[in-house]
Amino acid sequence: MVRSKAWLLRGFAVGVAFALTLAACGGGNAVSSQASGGASGAPKTGGTIYLLSLNQQWDQVDPQRIYTGEDLAFFGGTIQRSLTSYKYSADAKEGTSVTADLATDTGKPNATATEWSFTLRDGVTWQDGSPVTCEDVKYGVSRTFATDVINQGPTYQVAYLDIPSAKDGSSAYKGPYKKTGQDLYDKAVTCNGNTITFKLSKPVPDFNYTVTLGFSPVRKSDDTGESYGQPGHLVVSDGPYMVQSYSIGNGGKMVLVRNPKWNKASDPIRANYPDTWEVDFGIDPKVMDQRLIASAGKDNFAIQYGNIQPENLATIFTDPEHTTAQFTGRAVSGFDPYARYYWVNVNKVPDVNVRRAMWVALDRQAIRLNIGGAFAGNMADGVIKPNIGQDYASTGLLDGSLDWEAGTKVPDNGDPDLAKTLIAKSGKPAPTLTFNFANTPTNAKTAAIVKSSLEKAGFTIKVAPLEAGQYYSIVFDPKKSGEFGTAGWGADWPNASTVIPPLFTQKGGWDLSQLDDATLNQAVDAAQTDTDRADQSKKWQDLNKQVVENMWVLPTFFGLSQTLAGKKVGPIYRWPAYGSWPYGQMYTMP
Predict the structure, then answer these.
(1) Whole-angstrom Cα distance, residue 419 to residue 396?
(2) Would you tell me the crossing angle of helices 533-550 and 518-528 to the nearest 10 degrees?
(3) DSSP classification of residue 355
(4) For residue 468, which phi and psi values (nearest 5 degrees)?
(5) Are 490 and 1 in contact (CB under 8 A)?
(6) Helix, strand, or coil here: 299?
(7) CA distance 488 to 560
(8) Is the peptide bond preceding residue 571 cis, with omega within 30 degrees of 0?
(9) How far is it, in rounded angstroms, from Cα 206 to Cα 9?
(10) What digits encode the pLDDT tens for the residues 485-511?
């Protein structure tokens, strides 16, 4: 799924965009799923909303490469549209349901769901006034196949379209730059006037959810390949705003202004209230919190990109479900979409007993306390989060029923003696391991806990902080990455087909563990193509258990997150589609 930026402030790197999110709520000053903002008043057209970010830049602005929930939400609400989008609502069910966006409806499948057609709306234009065409959508989708150029984004196009594989298992189509296999792509994706049709290699009953990710149009004449969307190669908008300027680093900014060619009649989703969006980069998270707490001057109209720092939670909340009176209507707390874990490169740590020992030794209790205690979330037993629905079942990791060592239940603060026993089973001394994490003060403290707890079991741990905006470019390169590091994932929609395949298969595109297991791949394919939803759920549950039995990742937490806004911006709620602000509906108040 899409990645989350909770990792920047809480010690996790997160993948994926969407998940079914539960809003925390209660009486009194409860953190409601929706609030009107810190000040009374109707939405105002005009003004500027400021988005305050720790990052030095966006991970990606390219519509085929964005795969972080908050980024998908921001750009989807401002400058980039897709065939379908999610409804704006604080309600967990409504806010994760798809609605027509660029298309006139949510798609028409054939009887077997192996073919889907979408017809584009009239009146949708690029920022220069030229029409967005079927061929623009087709070209945008094709870019994902150029994996040597367009990477780090969702790869459902590659997994689902009816295009054969090459001998090495990759797609026989190599994208629009090399054009190898172009005829294969042209058979799988066809345009007939304003209608685009996708032919799939297997039934995908929820393909209308799939097209929310990486299926946005790109005009061939605008495409600059790997640099598209970066400073000097600004992305071209088909939404209500367009990029006026983009500079990176401390003090850098992205400024969005109104797109004069946007036609409200062609866009049933976005409200287009503020005149300007200003994204301010390189802001220290502690300074960010203090600015938003004070909410003075332009910070009245500011929202944070990330989470409230742990030391400020008690000032803003009385508990994970209630704010203090001062912050009623300005702060949000609730389940985010993400299951957190530490990825482990299985090629660098090949022995399952060593990987098990890493999790057994880990002091998850101290880590949780460091990142916010009860505000951080619950202990995780796998990568499928309970709020996804029927695909979740307990794996037995937390109650000891996995029976690694006679059913031993591992305490939350770790068991170094049991870890030593597991290491001994490997027949080799405990190895030296390098731990990658995004470089923030909170994450540095977490890394120190990881180092201390694993070294009690005999490991030698080297901490390797990485700049937040460069994290994924390092950890996806086995030559540069360490043995393990921070990560997390949320379902792209309410089906574990958007969790297990992306994380643990090469086709999925987000396999930080570097698995390439033929037996696993066959089991994943069997689950993906099972049209009996109950049978499919059982397959995903079994695979989730297999993940933790083999410790292909080290589960940590099912996350909660808390965010804060200034007094004069609204609406304030967590949009369950992405665990984000509802950017496309936001406004300033007098």
Answers:
(1) 18
(2) 150
(3) H
(4) -55, -45
(5) yes
(6) helix
(7) 13
(8) yes
(9) 33
(10) 999 888 888 889 999 998 998 877 778
Residue 487: name the closest of 473, 469, 472 by CA: 472
Tell me the three state secondary structure of residue 223.
Answer: coil
pLDDT digits (tens, 9 = 90+) for 446-499: 999 999 999 999 999 999 999 867 788 899 899 999 999 999 888 888 889 999
Mapped onto helix, strand or coil, the DSSP state of residue 235 is coil
Structure tokens at 220: 């061939």
CA dist 473 and 465 (Å) reads 13
The DSSP H or E segment spanning 159 is helix 156-160
Q: Which amino acid belongs to residue 90?
A: A
The conformational region for residue 469 under phi > 0 = left, psi -120 to 50 = alpha, else beta, is: alpha
- Give the residue from 506, 573, 396 showing the smallest Cα distance to 35: 573
Instruction: Show Cβ contacts of residue 345 under 8 Å, excluding neighbours closer than 6 positions.
Output: 478, 481, 482, 483, 484, 512, 513, 514
End-to-end CA gap in the chain: 37
Q: H or E segment at 337?
A: strand 331-344
Report the distance separating Cα 530 and Cα 496, nearest Å. Answer: 12
- Which pair of structure tokens corresponds to residue 533? 């939803």
Please name which of 420, 307, 399, 382 lies closest in space to residue 10, comparing C-alpha atoms: 307
